[in-house]
């Protein structure tokens, strides 16, 4: 069955088509959920909520643009909605921090798993902005709209996230250097 036919069948609430769509895209969307969740269990919850939303709103997809991109946007928005309800951004009033780029040298001593782990450990407001900006390519204005914050707050949260990550990577490297001595 073609993707267009699958989408059409999902729009008429065909449960077999919905199951097929889930099988086709769940692993990719779970990866998105992991980026926007505190842990594996929360990512699973976000994935389930995202698919519920996808099936409710699939009528809104008009076969224009990438379907996978549409799924990803719905999934990100579903995960962010959880944080909006929790008030993660309600008390943010940070001074603007210079958006200094933090570069991490290409180093085989640091695994992707470790980098993902320390990104997941960031406080919610920093992790969400970091993921949206660095990993998914959203602008600060887009992030501000998505998270209902101002662009300056987005920039300061990104800068703070980068500072925290740089510190953790430096500490990790120092720990591994002293172990090898």
From TrEMBL:
RNA polymerase sigma-70 region domain residues are 21-86
Give residue ranges for domain RNA polymerase sigma factor 70 region 4 type. 113-163
Instruction: Cite the entry's keywords alphabetically.
Output: Sigma factor, Transcription, Transcription regulation
Instruction: List the InterPro entries hit by this protein, alphabetically.
Output: RNA_pol_sigma-70-like, RNA_pol_sigma-70_dom, RNA_pol_sigma70_r2, RNA_pol_sigma70_r4_t2, RNA_pol_sigma_r2, RNA_pol_sigma_r3/r4-like, WH-like_DNA-bd_sf
Q: Name one GO biological process term.
A: DNA-templated transcription initiation
Q: Does the keyword Ion transport apply?
A: no
A GO molecular function annotation here is: sigma factor activity
The record's similarity note reads: Belongs to the sigma-70 factor family. ECF subfamily.
According to UniProt, the name of this protein is: Sigma-70 family RNA polymerase sigma factor
User: Which taxonomic lineage is given here?
Assistant: Bacteria, Pseudomonadati, Bacteroidota, Flavobacteriia, Flavobacteriales
